[in-house]
Amino acid sequence: MKSKHLRADVLAGLTTSFALVPECIAFALVAHLNPLMGLYGAFIICTLTALFGGRPGMVSGAAGSMAVVIVALVVQHGVQYLLATVLLGGLIMVAFGLLRLGKLVRMVPHPVMLGFVNGLAIIIALAQLEHFRDGEAWLSGTPLYLMLGLVALTMAIVYLLPRLTRAVPPALAAILGVGLAVWLLGLPTHTLGDMAHIAGGLPVPALPDVPWSLETLAIVAPYAVLMALVGLLETLLTLNLTDEITESRGYPDRECAALGAANLVSGLFGGMGGCAMIGQTMINLSSGGRGRLSGVVAGAMILLFVLFLSPLIERIPLAALVGVMFVVAQQTFAWASLRVLDKVPLNDALVIVAVTIVTVFTDLATAVLCGIVIAALNFAWQQARELYADTHREADGSKLYRLHGTLFFASTTPFLNQFDPAGDPPQVTLDCRHLSFVDYSAIAALKTLRERYAKAGKHLRVLHLSERCRQLLKRAGVQHE
């Protein structure tokens, strides 16, 4: 590795680690867990996925999407059941990767990707507003003005420093610079230590203290499946985005397997479950992190914070981290999608807006599922509308129908409406040279058409079926000659 790449990865990893800490603490608190569980999970998952995953430069950790999924489980059954859920969820992720199902991410249309990115950018920005509270009340007066001023200063450094020098990642310079200013001037503002104390020891391996029974499996399995699906989905979508930014290709199956293994280890060592984190990934990439070392450094630094550096890290002002995350939200949002809303087809614009809104108000899995369903229904509708027939009379008085398009569940009615069994001559030919049969609905439609002509006392001959269509009809027991 070249020395400049080595330096860039180390600095990017250090910057990312500062951004990981408050996020992991916040997500652990959301899930009613000890903040150290979030930090241990971030250390283990970030390090292992960086070492063995399929996408260098991508950062994984104890993600908020996972925290939301398991809140109810923790409240009802306790932390030990959560650890069992993380273990089972990890096994599901490993199986997903070993079965090479990562390619399913190709089923996600680009408008869904845009909605996913926009929704997460909004979530990242909205999550920072919690730092403008003091207990249950919003900040006001001098504390509010000081917080806003420090956030603005942080954002100004991140935006303006690259115009002067690129020797240091601007986010790192902003965090350290604002933190040093707050300490030297003795400014009374919230720091990371106000969220939680992060000092701790090395994580210790232990199996979850739960009854290993079918009853326990029935409790944790639904949460484990949901956790695995949400984690895999967010990871694969983040991997796609990272591929686009770096103009390189990752390996989704390897990433899924590595993420599952990392979750297994995290569960064994008392950590939260996790997946790819788009905000921290964007910080890493914008700071120059492209190799595996950046993720390893980020993970290792989190452990060092817990073991040795907690007094220093707890002095970092939250305003500096909030400012960096606001910049990340601005850079993550696909602003170009707003400019093309009136230029792309209406259905694609609807998908972008719908996925964005659903991501913000529900969760990522629901949003992407809604987007895929909308896109699939629109595709089916468009394909059904494109089916048409050319007809003409032959010299012997018979009639020829030459169909064009795709015959499947959504186009069977338009297909049958092309024909006129009552008015057609005794001999009718259906040319399928340009017609594709896709599913059993297509076979049923052809069978229905034959029956209609037979009932009218006429003969339908079918020509130029593809080999695949012949096999479909043969398996269904439908005559096609």
Automatic annotation (TrEMBL):
Every STAS domain range: 388-481
Record's keyword terms, sorted: Membrane, Transmembrane, Transmembrane helix
PROSITE patterns: STAS
Gene3D superfamilies: STAS domain
Predominant location: membrane
Species for this entry: Azotobacter beijerinckii
GO cellular component: membrane
Subcellular localization(s) per the UniProt record: Membrane
Name of the protein described by the UniProt record: Sulfate permease, SulP family
PANTHER family attached to this UniProt entry: SULFATE TRANSPORTER YBAR-RELATED
Membrane topology recorded in Swiss-Prot or TrEMBL: Multi-pass membrane protein
